């Protein structure tokens, strides 16, 4: 079942076309990698899906409903969650409180009390192995721990689709493997579509994505199953610089 549909989305910044007539579909529970070099339009695409920007042209549908010009605070309760490349937690609040905020403003927010939101946070803290940091101020965490917190806060929203912006950048390869395994498990349990954006084709995409969408100069270059996409000569040429895969 199609969860998210973009029809000929275009976004301009002055004379720059950041996203150029991009169409794509993401199904319920699907794992998708969004890749492309710097300046290919990945972040702008995420901003359009999450409501940070509105497109000049095209339409965005979520579960069949038109959300093209819906602001972010209305999209989050529908089930659109997101992490950011640079985590921005509430630094003076605890890890537990930060994650609970995700529950309060997510899909189940209207149904959850503060205490229930804290319980959701506790469950995710345990699953993310952040128990030792539960009552620490978020501002005291290491960069990697803040990324883990960012993922926890997004998952607390109970999203139907989770947009992950370089969420595992900087992690040790073994930690990436563990995070991929965790995300695949929780996504399967809760039927979450995961959309991971990366600037470099890495083990997270290979280990998680069912299909890969490659952007180049704001346009969609390839939309295909992972191995087919990575072996496409156009991807090798414009994304990998003709040097093969990595």
Description:
This protein is α/β, with parallel strands linked by helices and 246 residues long. The chain has 2 domains: 1-79 and 159-246, P-loop containing nucleotide triphosphate hydrolases (Rossmann fold, 3-Layer(aba) Sandwich), CATH 3.40.50.300; 89-158, no CATH class. 35% of the residues lie in helices and 26% in strands. It is built from 9 helices and 10 strands. The strands form 2 sheets. It has a 6-stranded mixed beta sheet, with helices on both faces. A 4-stranded antiparallel beta sheet has the order 2-1-4-5, covered by helices on one side. Helix 3 (95-104) crosses helix 4 and helix 3 runs parallel beside helix 5 (143-156). The two termini are 32 Å apart. The relative contact order is 0.17.
Beta content comes to: 25-35%
Top-tier CATH class of the largest domain: Alpha Beta
Helix content: 25-40%
Strand order of the largest sheet: 6-7-8-3-9-10
Number of strands: 10
Secondary structure category? alpha/beta
Radius of gyration: 18 Å
Query: What shape does the CA trace take?
Result: globular
**N- to C-terminal separation?**
32 Å
Uncertain segments are 242-246
Q: Main β-sheet, in a few words?
A: 6 strands, mixed
Count up the domains. 2
